[in-house]
Design brief:
The two termini are 13 Å apart. 29% of the residues lie in helices and 25% in strands. Strands 3-2-4-1-10-9-11 form a 7-stranded antiparallel β-sheet. Strands 5-6-7-8-12-13 form a 6-stranded antiparallel β-sheet. The protein is an alpha+beta fold. It is built from 17 helices and 23 strands. Helix 4 packs across helix 5 and helix 5 crosses helix 6.
């Protein structure tokens, strides 16, 4: 993965969120796509886009609108009214491959000799350079750095020799390596594809006679639809006016679902591969408390990602749970690389400590991860300034040791504090009284027997 190296808020970031809908003719879907993208906003805040088509309109007519910023900044009522149609796809993006610019925003919409398509993509194609070289030899020489564009050209290349768009998608998918969830629309069809390992999530729902695909079930529910099921790893689902067709020809026995969806990425009200995300995080907190004899007065979570695990820790340990922070949810975004001083002050703008809660108290502080350690160090400083006597840090994931190649913004090992330092050294660096991570064997407590990709912890890359 060509990582851009910018760790915003000292957190890991998922690459994207995707949404697609096929509704009966005469239905307008732009508003549902907008609402679905709002529900997926946490998966990407750099750009947003929507493509739509009318299945009864002029063949090949796909309208696209995309821009930099949040969904609500890119679209308004007037913009949505200019996107008529009953079939469409939408996307929110955080860049890990390709830069943060409009040229890399999605959907990618293209016209070609047999028609047109629009594509949205979550994940990373690890052999995209190999595919790009092959395509350039065939005359496709004008590429951005986005592997999504490589995907679109690969489908178009296969479409020239295929009887249908879904057959072209299947032929293209056979050559893909990596973690991905794709939703592709032609003017008459909607196609959803999930990588054979199931690294990236993709779910399917229904709203009346409309069929919906999304990165998370929370987006399905947000538009008043019912979650039907997960798209199976390796499955290709095609929706047309004739109904729904499933092709499981690329499905395989080996699976590797991204553990970090359950630790941090997904909304807590989502369900993925049959597992409630909220419950998984609660159980992670319980597992952290198991065999942890620390003496403390309160358990607190770093908002928002550490709160559920903190509740689980409190329940299992018998130590009272407390809200120790006020979070300012209205911090503006900036695409300007911050200076060290601005990065330090960002924590102060986002969080403030409730002094009456923490003064003279021994705290167990729960968060989902430590990447560079800078944010945790500042949070502990705020707690001590507010009078906390002790701060014992507990992390509901193992230490990050290795980069991710499947569309998650894990940097090089040299930027991961746990890769360069022992737990005791990290503890001293962040200024904690003690530090403990979740053990990899505790994943079973979190998600049962679900096959996992945990390569960022153990270097066991499935692809």
């Amino acid at each position: 993965m060509k990582n851009n190296g910018l760790l915003r808020d000292d957190k890991l970031h998922e690459e994207c969120g995707v949404f697609g809908i096929y509704a009966p003719a005469g239905t307008e879907v732009a508003r549902d796509i907008y609402d679905g993208l709002i529900a997926l906003q946490h998966r990407g805040q750099e750009s947003a886009g929507i493509s739509v088509s009318d299945t009864e309109g002029p063949k090949g007519n796909i309208n696209t609108k995309k821009g930099m910023g949040l969904v609500s900044e890119v679209f308004n009522k007037e913009e949505l009214a200019r996107l008529p149609g009953n079939i469409g796809v939408g996307h929110v993006r955080y860049s890990t491959t390709g830069g943060s610019s409009l040229v890399n925003a999605q959907p990618i919409a293209m016209n070609y000799i047999k028609g047109s398509l629009a594509l949205v993509h979550n994940g990373n194609i690890v052999n995209s350079d190999e595919l790009k070289e092959k395509q350039m030899r065939m005359g496709h020489a004008h590429f951005t750095s986005s592997d999504t564009e490589v995907l679109a050209y690969e489908i178009i290349r296969e479409r020239v020799a295929s009887p249908t768009i879904e057959e072209a998608v299947k032929r293209a998918a056979k050559d893909l390596r990596g973690g991905y969830a794709l939703v592709i629309m032609s003017p008459r069809k909607l196609i959803a594809v999930r990588d054979p390992f199931g690294i990236k999530p993709l779910v399917m729902g229904k709203k009346g006679d409309a069929v919906i695909f999304a990165s998370e079930s929370a987006a399905i529910v947000s538009v008043g639809a019912e979650l039907i099921r997960d798209v199976k790893p390796g499955e290709i689902v095609t929706v047309t006016e004739e109904g729904i067709a499933s092709d499981e020809g690329l499905c395989q026995e080996k699976r590797a679902h991204c553990i970090f969806e359950y630790i941090y990425f997904a909304r807590s009200d989502s369900v993925m591969d049959g597992i409630e995300v909220h419950d998984a995080r609660f159980r992670a907190g319980q597992a952290l408390a198991d065999g942890d004899p620390v003496e403390a007065d309160l358990v607190a979570g770093v908002p928002d990602s550490g709160l559920i695990a903190a509740e689980g820790y409190a329940q299992a340990s018998g130590i009272p749970f407390a809200i120790a922070f006020h979070k300012n949810s209205y911090i503006g975004r900036s695409f300007i690389k911050p200076s060290p001083e601005e990065r330090r002050s960002a924590v102060h703008r986002k969080l403030s400590v409730l002094k009456s809660v923490v003064k003279d108290k021994r705290l167990v502080l729960i968060d989902d991860s430590i990447v560079r350690g800078t944010t945790m160090r500042q949070i502990i400083e705020l707690l001590r300034q507010a009078g906390a006597k002790e701060v014992h840090v507990r992390i509901s994931s193992p230490p990050f040791l290795y980069p991710c190649f499947y569309g998650t913004d894990v940097p090089s090992a040299g930027q991961l504090i746990a890769s360069e330092h022992s737990t005791e050294e990290v503890c001293r660096t962040i200024g904690a009284d003690s530090l403990r991570y979740l053990r990899p064997e505790d994943f079973r407590t979190m998600v049962g027997d679900l096959p996992l990709c945990s390569a960022c912890f153990d270097r066991d890359y499935p692809v």
